[in-house]
UniProtKB/TrEMBL annotation:
Gene3D superfamilies: HUPs (3.40.50.620), putative n-type atp pyrophosphatase, domain 2 (3.90.1490.10). Coiled coil: none annotated. This is ATPase. It holds the Pfam family Diphthami_syn_2. InterPro entries: Diphthami_syn_dom, DPH6/MJ0570, Rossmann-like_a/b/a_fold. NCBIfam families: MJ0570_dom (TIGR00290). PANTHER family: DIPHTHINE--AMMONIA LIGASE, DOMAIN OF UNKNOWN FUNCTION 71 DUF71 -CONTAINING PROTEIN. Residues 17-225 form the Diphthamide synthase domain.
Amino acid sequence: MGISQDWKTGADGQMFVVSFSGGKDSTLALYESMKTGKAVGLIIVLEEDGTRSHSHGMTIDFIKAQAASIGLPIYLAAANWENYEATFIDMLHKMKTLGVEALVTGDLDMPEHGCWHEKVTNIANLTLGMPLWQVDHTEIVERFINLGFKTIITTVNLTLGMCEDDLGKVLTYEYVQELKSRGIDPCGEGGEFHTTVIDGPIFKQPISFRPIEIIRENNYAFLPLQLIYTND
C-alpha cells in the first residue's frame, strides 16, 4: 500500500488477519474491520519457548479460549526478539497462501514514515489496515466500553504511575477518569499497562477465569489468569 492515509481503511473489502494481542486495541480493531472486510483469523507471535505471547504474556490456553469464543482460527509461531521480524513476515506469507489480502493491527500512534507494520506488509505484498490510527485515546476507550467489551488490567509498569492495585481492575468510565487524573494515558500507549479482553459483542460467551498469584519481574507486575473450564 505504502500510503499512510489509507491505513484506516486498508482492510475495507479485504480478507484479513489480525495481529492479535488479546488486549483491547487489537480486539477493537478486529471489531471495526469486521464491519467492512472478512476476518480470516488471528496471528500471534509467542515467546521463544512457545508458552506465552510476546509483550502481553498471555498463555496459549487463554489465547485459544479467546479465539474460540470469537469464532476465528488462530495461527501461532514462536520467536525471540532477534528473529521476531523474520518470523512475522513468514507468517504473513503463509496467510497470503490462504487468500489473505490485508493485515489489521490495533496501533494508534504509528509514525507516517518508518512504520514497522507497513514495512512487513509491503514485503509480504499485503495491505495494512489500522482502523484506530490517530483516533483520540479517550474516544477509543469510551467506544470500547460503549460497545459492551469487558477487559481487565493484567500487566503494569511500576515506573510509569501504575501500581499492583491496578491489576485486575476492569476498564470502566470511572477507572478511565481515574487513570487520566493520575496522568496516565487511558489506552496505556506509553507502556503503562496491558489489558486482556474477556467479553464483548464479538464473543460468543465470556471467558471464565480466576486470577492467580501476581508475578513481579524487574519494573513490571503481571496478573496471570487461569481458565475455568465448564461443562456444556
